[in-house]
Amino acid sequence: MDAPDSAVALSFARARSPQQREDRLRRLTEVTRALLANTRASELTLGEIAAGAGLAKSGVLRHAGSREALLLLVMYHEHLGWLDDLNLQLTDERRSTAKALAHTLAQRPVLCDLISAAPVLMNRLTPEAAETVRTQARDVEDRLHETLRPRLALDRQHLVLLTAATHAFVGAVWGWAAIDSAEQPEPGTELENTLAALLRTFIAGLQQ
């Protein structure tokens, strides 16, 4: 359950300039990312985020808009980190594209958890926040296109399908792995192998 705003949190200096607000939001994303290492996105509360950042819950909402918007912002940054990892993995020509995708995703449990939680989070956004998330998603798609283009000759429509399929596979496989885990599931071989098999089949279908 969320803890009430504390006197310490309420006394936290308010960010007034654009730079201060940007710094505060960056700090909130860092705190939230750290908390997600041990707590699932579906269970992480606004009060826990506020306590970790030294803010009142109202301060978190002022800077992030909502708990859901903040979690999806963390997901965007996790996607960017994942794309850096993927780019490195794809330099090894012995590793298939499906295997590179699966391996890099399996090594990012926070991203997998956020992908699994994203449909519920998206349904709770304001229209303005939802548009921001869609813009972030398009940015990820563009970057993924650039990353995969040397390996896969996919047009924009096929790339969108691959992105959607990847997220659907991650959400399903991660969701099943989480059922038997008290905390975040470990990024194990079974998860990676299952994702690789699903992605290999899907990519083969796109290339036919």
In total, the number of domains comes to: 2
At the fourth level of CATH, the homologous superfamily of the largest domain is Tetracycline Repressor, domain 2
Sheet with the most strands? Answer: none
Rg to the nearest angstrom?
18 Å
Number of helical segments? 10
Low-confidence stretches: 1-12
Output the keywords.
208 residues; mainly alpha; Arc Repressor Mutant, subunit A; Tetracycline Repressor, domain 2; 2 domains; 10 helices; 73% helix; disordered N terminus
Written overview of the protein:
With 208 residues, this protein is an all-alpha fold. The chain folds into two domains: 7-64, Orthogonal Bundle (Arc Repressor Mutant, subunit A); 67-207, Tetracycline Repressor, domain 2. It is built from ten helices and no strands. Helix 2 (18-36) packs across helix 3, helix 7 (109-123) packs across helix 9 and helix 9 (156-179) packs antiparallel against helix 10 (189-207). The N and C termini lie far apart (51 Å). Residues 1-12 have low confidence and may be disordered.
